[in-house]
Write a structure and sequence with these properties.
Shape: globular
Structural class: alpha/beta
Number of domains: 1
Strand content: 25-35%
CATH class: Alpha Beta
CATH topology: Transcription Regulator spoIIAA
Number of helices: 4
Strand order of the largest sheet: 1-2-3-4-5
Number of strands: 5
Largest sheet: 5 strands, mixed
Distance between the termini: 20 Å
Length: about 110
């Protein structure tokens, strides 16, 4: 399940359950809308309740986090252990945005919530 909301100027995407190929188009649309319409607003990605994420959605998420970072939007992340494992798998496979995302997350370059 994916949900988008804006409360007090904070745009939030909340994900729950499993994210796989069937969710790819919806996830891409939500992330692209936030990137396109966000200017300098605060963005929160809450993936704390994701039980499974496949590599397709992991790549989308990782690339979007890198794009948010490059656009200088304030980004707060909440990632489940399963999402972190998917990003770690993608990092090991050589995906540059996954490496950057994990390094920034660990080094507090991105705010964890």
């Amino acid at each position: 399940m994916l949900r988008t909301e804006i409360v007090d100027g904070v745009s939030t995407i909340t994900a729950r359950g499993e994210l796989d190929r069937a969710d790819q188009a919806d996830l891409r649309e939500k992330l692209e809308n936030l990137l396109r319409n966000g200017d300098k607003s605060q963005v929160k990605l809450d993936f704390a309740d994701v039980d499974f994420m496949d590599s397709t959605c992991g790549r989308l998420l990782s690339d979007a986090i890198a794009a948010f970072h490059q656009s200088h939007q304030k980004l707060r992340l909440k990632l489940s252990p399963q999402v972190r494992r998917t990003l770690e798998f993608l990092r090991r496979a050589g995906l540059p945005s996954a490496r950057t995302t994990l390094d920034d997350f660990r080094g507090q370059g991105l705010a964890a919530i």
